[in-house]
Fold this sequence. Notes:
Elements: H1 13-17, H2 27-32, E1 51-55, H3 56-59, H4 67-70, H5 79-91, E2 103-105, E3 112-118, E4 124-134, E5 137-145, E6 150-163, E7 166-172, E8 175-179, E9 188-192, E10 196-200, E11 208-219, E12 224-231, E13 242-249, E14 255-262, E15 266-271, E16 276-282, H6 304-307, H7 309-316, H8 320-344, E17 347-348, E18 353-355, E19 372-374, H9 383-391, H10 415-429, E20 451-452, H11 561-568, H12 573-585, H13 603-607
Parallel strand pairs: 1-2, 17-20
Antiparallel strand pairs: 3-4, 4-5, 5-6, 6-7, 6-8, 7-10, 8-9, 9-11, 10-11, 11-12, 12-13, 13-14, 14-15, 15-16, 18-19
Helix pairs in contact: 7-8, 8-10, 11-12
Amino acid sequence: NRxxxxxxxxxxxxxxxxxxxxxxGNVLSHIISQLRPGADLSRVVLPxxxxxxxxxxxxxxxxxAHPETLLPMAEIEDPEERFVSxxxxxxxxxxxxxxxxxxxxxxxxxxxxxxxxxxxDNTKGYYISEQTSHHPPKSSYFFMxxxxxxxxxxxxxxxxxxxxxxxxxxxxxxxxxxLKNWGGPGGEKYxxxxxxxxxxxxxFGKMKYELGDHSFVRCPELGLTADxxxxxxxYFTGSYNAIGGTIKNDKTGEILxxxxxxxxxxxxxxxxxTGRKEVLFDAQKTKxxxxxxxxxxxxxxxxxxxxxxxxxxxxxARNHExxxxxxxxxxxxxxxxxxxxxxxxxxxRPRYFREVRTGxxxxxxxxxxxxxxxxxxxxxxxxxxxxxxxxxxxxxxxxQIFEERMKIPPSRLSRESTRHSRLQDLQALNDPSxxxxxxxxxxxxxGDDLIDFSQNQAPAPIQLPPQAAPIHSAAPVPGHAVPRxxxxxxxxxxxxxxxxxxVPVNPGAPVPQxxxxxxxPVNPAPYAPVPQKAPIHPTPNAPVPGTTQxxxxxxxxxxxxxxxxxxxxxxxxxxxxxxxTLAETATGNNGKPGSQSPLLDFHKDLGxxxxxxxxxxxxxxxFVDAEG
Length: 628
């Protein structure tokens, strides 16, 4: 079957101004109804009547929907003309959208979408995408037309902001397009960015969708850059959907071409050397080509169209109550899965994409903005071999089924991806919208894996992982992962961590005796528990860890006997002597013994700059994700 692209809309100004739903004027009341004292605005849920009935992973295919602009790029010999053809391809997909102001469904973690195009010359193009992160949202995708030598890797990373009467979706991330027939061994590379998206009138007045700000198309090999401005309408001047821009030679700074027009209609290009102006692309006179998508009965539970089918049908039928219920059910499933991973100490990892290798001399050096690329080598000597390699990764064509050879290859987690995975799960649980969500019992269906590659298509009851001896192996095992750092669950002698407070433990589920301490119930904690460190200077009358003074205390893990004695005997004198020795030999004791010959020097470490982590993920996640 064909994709659900809205073929009827070419994005004229009038259809964008049309209020296609009577409830669109009630966005303000819908938002206000969710506000509570201390509420986090980043978790405000937008009403379903502004939803497009398809996932963002599917919406990305708009950019490949015009084969008449896509396929000729690789055949043009003149470098300048070839660059202009890439700009034409880039501009040709923005007009494809439904009437009114609509946002696509935000993909859940591990969601996938695949499709293919059949071209007039009997060749094909293949598309694979996966949601590789949820907080912040990241949609990774791969496209290739093997017979034409066209290859695209991309990562869409939207961030959302409220701007008074508008909501902005800041479209971070890049796409890298390669023309394999030109340039060096990796092909001629083009780096593409995207404009930002704005929804005007979300609180009062008519709602309006606009693209705004600058985006770029750059080819390092040719030394050419296109700076394209998507112009937003001013209060008193300007027009909707206008673009302007230039193409310049980066080496000389000379402007070669000027761009103008409407991204929903006719766009022109002017050659400044000759003064000639011609139509670059006319969105009103073309029709997009939707891709082929496998029927629902062949799709897995995590594939976009099957995952969101009930939600999409309710949106199409304008049954917003049912749409909200179905959408919430999918999102609640994602939260239960995050709770199960935290309880089991399982790291989540994308199934079909891997981290880019951006170090010096690595295969993706300088391509940090992609974050993740397809975890497969598509390097066949012929187009037929490349097509075979692509189809061996994941089912794409109708009639194709998941086969044994499509199993996930072994891989190691980096520390950064491990940290990010746990952070995502904590953020998914630390969500005010989770309050009151009941967690259905789920099983640890991934066995003893410490990495969840989304191989399980549905949640299962939370159960405590069996206590087993640690695995000492330097090589990863297929389908498993080498643990990085201590597991989330504590040692056997410590208490079992509770599921985060906002995902209540099912009171009806039986708890194994090993899950309790002296028969005491497991009480949920606000966050994943962290083992408590013993005080450095114990008070002589304080209860000894492991005794019953003032009630039982259960250390996690228990203190070694020698350390326990050092802290307890003679009021902890032995430990204080050790600490005093360390203090006297450390940096910073000016004029004191040991200051001239420190054994410990922290100045060097403290003076080093630390990597900046982006903590600005608490915006209204999700004008492209306000539902998460």
